[in-house]
Structure formats: structure tokens, C-alpha cells
Specification:
Elements lengths: L2 H8 L5 E3 H8 L3 H13 L3 E5 L2 E4 L6 H8 L3 E3 L1 H7 L9 E6 L3 E5 L2 E7 L9 E4 L2 E4 L1 H13 L17 H8 L4 H17 L1
Parallel strand pairs: 5-7
Antiparallel strand pairs: 1-3, 2-3, 4-5, 6-7, 8-9
């Protein structure tokens, strides 16, 4: 295996690699790439997280970047993003993300939950920070309310700090969500107004 390809691997922006991304780096067939990955695990360059997903040994990573890698495409959202942005004080013991299908797994003694969201709602409202992709505050709020309309999330008006939301951006995003979400936002705003 050429040293320049190993060097390319070690200099990558991400600590995580799928068989497909390794295949692109090494320019080999899928089966050959699996063999190369197994050798790199034996040599202590990579560690296998699960089938077809590896990470560089000794490379720091966050649970949120791992969440992005475990299910692609996915975006950290819901309670995890709300807490990250300081909109709720509760610290979720589970890492929640949006994805195109529902999925759950446990890695590194952490549970990762992916809630299915419509494809058009996955196309906007996320940012890349600290090596992972996360819903911005308004998007995380609306995603959570969207799941509340489906009975999957408990979020009460008193749980959220509405002052931290960009009202203009929230209004723009709302156009893409169902009427039930718009009604919930109205009730959250009313509660916030009355509380002041």
C-alpha cells in the first residue's frame, strides 16, 4: 500500500471512513478496499466501529460527529441541538438526529436515535461546526415540534428559551412545515408573550 495513500488518510478532515470513502482514497475495488481496511486495523491505523465504518486510531472526535458518520445523510437535531444551542437546559442522554429513515444504534456506550423526516426538510437549516453538521437553533426547534405533532417528543413552551430564536428565520423555515407545526409555534409564542 503506497505511503502517500496512508498519508492522505491521516490528513483527512474526518476521523471516520466508510468503505466507499476508503475506496475513493485508494482507487481500489470494494473487496480490495475491505482487505486494505482489515490490514489497516491490524496495523493500528484504523479501528472498526461497525460493518463498513472505521475511524482513525488516536484521532479525537465528538459524539455528534460520530452521529453524522453512523447514518448518512443525517443532521444532529431535536433535543441534542436544542441543548447545544442553549435553548433547553435538559441534557439529553441520547444523541438525536434527523435522517431519511428511522434508525437506532448503540456505539461507544451511547444511544444514537435517528428520526425520519421528509427529504425536503433535510435540505436547509443546518450548519457545520466543530466537525459535525447540526440543525441551527430555529430548525432544531421546528424539527422538534414536527416530531411533537407525531407524538414522538414532549416539548412544552416553558421548556424552551424563545428569546434565542431568530424570529425572521423561523418565519421563513415555517413555510416548509405542515400547518400543525405552525399552530404549535403560535401557541409557544403566545405562552412566551404571556410569561413576560
Amino acid at each position: 500500500m503506497a505511503g502517500d495513500k496512508i498519508s492522505k488518510l491521516l490528513n483527512a478532515d474526518t476521523p471516520f471512513f466508510t468503505i466507499s470513502s476508503l475506496q475513493a482514497i485508494f482507487g481500489t475495488s470494494r473487496e480490495s478496499t475491505r482487505t486494505i481496511a482489515a490490514r489497516l486495523v491490524k496495523r493500528g491505523v484504523l479501528t472498526r466501529i461497525r460493518r463498513d465504518l472505521y475511524r482513525l486510531i488516536n484521532r479525537e472526535y465528538s459524539l455528534f460527529s460520530l452521529a453524522n458518520a453512523l447514518c448518512q445523510p443525517s443532521v444532529v437535531s431535536f433535543e441534542s441541538a436544542l441543548n447545544y444551542w442553549g435553548l433547553i437546559v435538559q441534557v439529553p442522554q441520547i444523541v438525536f438526529s434527523t435522517a431519511l429513515w428511522s434508525y437506532q444504534c448503540e456505539v461507544d456506550n451511547t444511544t444514537f436515535v435517528y428520526r425520519r423526516i421528509a427529504a425536503p426538510l433535510m435540505r436547509f437549516g443546518h450548519v457545520k461546526v466543530e466537525g459535525f453538521t447540526i440543525a441551527d437553533p430555529g430548525k432544531a426547534f421546528l424539527d422538534t415540534l414536527y416530531m411533537r405533532t407525531k407524538g414522538l417528543v414532549e416539548l412544552l413552551p416553558e421548556d424552551i428559551n424563545m428569546d434565542r430564536l431568530d424570529t425572521e428565520l423561523l418565519t421563513y423555515y415555517l413555510r416548509f412545515y405542515p400547518e400543525a407545526v405552525r399552530e404549535l409555534v403560535g401557541s409557544f409564542r403566545m405562552h412566551d408573550y404571556e410569561a413576560k
